[in-house]
Amino acid sequence: MVDQNASVPDVVTTALAEDPTPATRGRIFAWSLWDWGSAAFNAVVTTFVFTVYITGSAFGDKDVISAQLGWALAIAGLLIAVLAPVTGQRSDTSGRRKFWLGVNTFIVVAITASMFFVQASPDFLLLGLFLVAAGNVFFEFAGVNYNAMLAQVSTPATVGKVSGFGWGMGYIGGIVLLLIVYFGFIQPDVGLFGVTSENGLAVRVSMLIAAVWFGLFALPVLFSVPEYRAPDAVRRERVGFLRSYAVLAHDVARLWRTSRHTVYFLLASAVFRDGLAGVFTFGGVLAASVFGFSAGEVIIFAIAANVVAGVATMAVGALDDRLGAKPVIVTALIGLVVCATIVFFLHDGGQIVFWTAGLALCLFVGPAQSASRSFLARLIPAGREGEVFGLYATTGRAVSFLAPTAFAVFVTIFGETYWGILGIMLVLLVGLLLLLPVKAKQEQIS
Predict the structure, then answer these.
(1) What is the dihedral of CA 38, 366, 165, 268, to 10 degrees?
(2) How far apart, in whole angstroms, are the C-alpha atoms of residue 102 and residue 96?
(3) Residues 363-397: pLDDT tens digits?
(4) Does a structural domain hold residue 233?
(5) Residue 360 maps to which CATH number?
């Protein structure tokens, strides 16, 4: 249980000053700690540590394994796209949103802990790939319910601050944990508790640390935020799993009729969110291959980039509430395109270019992600949060090939890695152009 009188950042206090509901500083802080803890899966498992480990030479040919990892994640993405809206819808109608957040979260915790058994041998590659794919599926399911709970810890006047605070906590929490596992276990020849890199032990122990981290920081929201109860006006009869798809199709058709711009936003945000993901996915590749960063320098830059993104996201939350989410997203996307253009044209300038323009670029990534979530949250009436955030996850997965494909196509055509910057920039620009016609003020979907 989080102390209701605990000292928390000013952004939480500011948000609550405008919040007439019983939501407390402790409740907002408890909700945001899930973001802080969940970064264990994003930063340690899927980005910097475990996927790097299983695509290493100890498991076989690197190129072959990378392709296998891509297929495993593609299968996971397909399952998420098919199942996320229905699982979100069913958590709405069952009134057990927090319950399913807890179930899916601790499945991810168990999967992360199970990665300890993936030894540095080709015999364990299939297990590692399966665990990464399964973890992604259940992590997205948990995220649908977590995002849907945003309405329970905020109001239309504070949703931007609260969303930004949570997203910023995710960035910073991931970096804190990354520092612990990297300098505590991975980087030293002999780490804490005498752990060495023999048979991948340093990475495997890091997975245990990540699992404990996520599990502990997921507990406060489960204790502090009440279980969701669907309002009588929107409560619907429970139906079987397969029947849920028919209900979903009916609801999507109604969404198209009653709030077409919400559908437009789901499509636009899917495109620019994939571009945002590409910024971090290929940032390390560009730093190393184009700007000559060493492996250690890449990690140092990653830490700085995530801190900048986290602080910016928290700070811009107030503007989200004051000006609206759309101006924040549009400004952020323009800033990203401008910074990417600078990096592209000045790539011969060396590391100073990447440090300055790259960190400037990171100022805009988090605010765009957070404001996208708050934009949608403002449109969803009580009782359909899980379903619509499920569609949010589905549309994002449906186009998740855009940034990697654009990056690869530009590099393949022009033969130089730095051309991939234009590929990512193109995805961001298309997302921006799709967003511009979307009406920021519209009737709530019903």
Answers:
(1) -90
(2) 10
(3) 898 888 888 888 887 776 656 666 677 677 667 76
(4) no
(5) 1.20.1250.20
